[in-house]
Each structure stands twice: as structure tokens, then as C-alpha cells.
Design brief:
Layout: E1 2-6, H1 7-20, H2 35-42, E2 49-58, H3 67-89, E3 92-104, E4 116-121, H4 123-137, E5 142-146, H5 153-161, E6 165-171, H6 177-182, E7 185-189, H7 191-196
Parallel strand pairs: 1-2, 1-5, 2-3, 5-6, 6-7
Antiparallel strand pairs: 3-4
Helix pairs in contact: 4-5
Length: about 200
Amino acid sequence: MKVYIDGENCRKGLARVLSDQGLIKNERTLINYRLRDLLEDVLASEGIEICYYASKIKLPQGYTPSKAVLNHINVIRQYSRKWIPHLSSQGIEYIKAGSLKVKSSKKCANCGKTQDILQEKGVDVRIAIDALDDVYSKNKKHVVIMSSDTDLCPAMHRIQSYNAHVTYVCFADAPNRAIAAVADETVTISISKARKYLK
């Protein structure tokens, strides 16, 4: 069994669930979260191989984002300096894939203003390629996807065509029905499980 995690999706999901319960104030509180313990619990399996995919921040040349976006980028970078070693200490492989790009939004139809937005690109493609390669070349028979990106559905179909089992892991409050329909099984993370591994 190998787990492929869309890092941004996972982190935001955990932050949402735990902040909704009043257990944390912001994502930075997750810095010591026991992610391996959570996944081994919900998947009822120990010693699983886990890969956590995250984006590199990429600022476009000749474009200066707003002060608010620059501050947000600095917060992400500071968080990553602690989060990456913490994941590594749990035996979770951290993989930089794709990029978190800063771009200007379309003009508002009412006021004509634009705003800076952060957009993740490429993580789902890397997860799809790695999972397919592991099934095809390394004969993995059980793939676990923790992502709500429907772009992964075609890769999941192809993985199943090699007689590999696909499990979709999601938070109980926000399953993606399209992915759940493709997966062989869906495992949801309840609020009580998410809470259990918060230090």
C-alpha cells in the first residue's frame, strides 16, 4: 500500500475541520500534527509508504504581487521550514512537485479591479505519474489517493486497469463525489479521528 497526498489539499482540510471545532486558530498550529498516525489509523495498516506532494512558490518575472500576498507567501515559507522536517521525522517522503504561482485575477465586472491570487499547478499531474509508474513498473497493488482534484480520475481508471485497488481518503465533511465514484473504496476521516492526532 502506498499513499499519495496532495499536501495543500490535506493541510487545508485538516485546518478547516479542526478550526471549525475551535481546536486551532490557524494552519500554523498544525506544525506538530501526527499525520502518519492518522493515516495508519484510518487505513488500519502500519508501516505504510507515504508521499506528501507540495508546490514550490514561483513569482512571475516583472510582476510584483500585493503586500498581502507577499506576506502570505512569507508565512507559507516559514511554515514549510518546520513542516518539512516534521513530516520527515514521521517517515513521510516530502516531494516538491509543480508550483504555487501568483497571478492576477480577471477584472471584476462591477468595479473593474483585479486581485492577486495563488494558484497551484502540477501536483495532481505528478501524483498521477508517480502512482501509474508504481503500479506499472513496481507492481504496487494498492494505491491510496488523498486529493480532491478530479483531474486524477483518468489516472485512477488506468491504475485500476492494471488490477490495482484504489482507495480514496477524504475528510468526512467534504468528499468529492466524482473521485469517490471512481475509487474502489472511500475512507473518510471523521472529526474525532482528525482531533485525536493533534498535539
